[in-house]
Amino acid sequence: MKLISATVAVRSAREPDGGVAQHLRRWLQSLGPLAVLIVLLLVFEIARHNFLTGGNLAAIAESAAVPVILTTGLSFVILLGAIDLSMEGVMAASSMTLSLLCANDVNGNHWGVWGIAAAIGVGLAFGLVNGVLNTILRMPSLIVTLGTWFIGLGIASILFPAQVPTVRDPWVLGIAAYHIAGLSLIVFVALLLLLLFHLLLHYTHLGRMIFAVGGAEATLVMTGLPVPLFKIAAFVISGLLAGIAGVLLSARLGDGNANIGDGLLFPAVSACVLGGTLLSGGRGGVLQSAIGAVVLEVLNNGLIQIGAGPYVRNIISGAVILLVVAASGLHLRRKLRVVK
Amino acid sequence: MTQLLETRGVGKTFGRVTALEQMDLVLSQGEVLGLVGQNGSGKSTLLKIIGGLVQPSSGEMLLHGKPVRLRSQSDATMHGIGMVHQEQSLVPNLTVAENIFLDKPNAAKAHGLYRWNRLFDAAAAQLRKIEIDIDPRATVEDLRFAQRQQVELAKVLAVEDLVSHPPIILFDEPTSVLTPDEIRLLFRQIERLRQTAAIVFVSHRLDEILHISDRAVVMTDGCKVADEPVTALDRESLYRLMVGRQRTIRAPRAVETRPAESLTPRLDVTGLSTGRQVRPATLAVAPGEILGLLGVQSSGAEEFCRALFGAEDDVHGTIRLNGKQISVTSPAAAVQAGIGYLPANRHVEGMLKGRTLVENMALTFGLDYGHRGMIVNRRAERRVASEWITRLRVKTRSADARIDDLSGGNQQKVVLGKWLLSRRLQLLLLDHPTRGLDPGARDDLFAVIRSEAAKGLSVIFIADTIGEVLDLSDRVIVMRDGAMSAEYNLNRGDAPSEEDLVRAMV
Question: CATH classification of A2-336 is 1.10.150, yes or no?
Answer without folding.
Answer: no
